[in-house]
Amino acid sequence: MGNNFRSNQPFNADWIVGTELYDYEKDPNETINVVNEEAYKAVSKELKGKILAFFKSQVK
Q1: Chain CA centroid to CA 55, Å
Q2: What is the DSSP letter of 39?
Q3: Tens digits of residue pLDDT in 21-38
Q4: Which residues contact 38 (CB under 8 A, 6 or more apart)?
């Protein structure tokens, strides 16, 4: 990504504006984003929690 930057500003989860989730068993070419499908809500929620925890752990 060409627009990455580092900042000393506090992390704000609202900055995450786009999400993608693909089922590699059903769609190995990543053509169907399933992030908003009901069957994937639990997975999406779990992964979002993990990425937010990671981002927060990177703040000094």
Answers
A1: 11
A2: G
A3: 999 999 999 999 999 999
A4: none
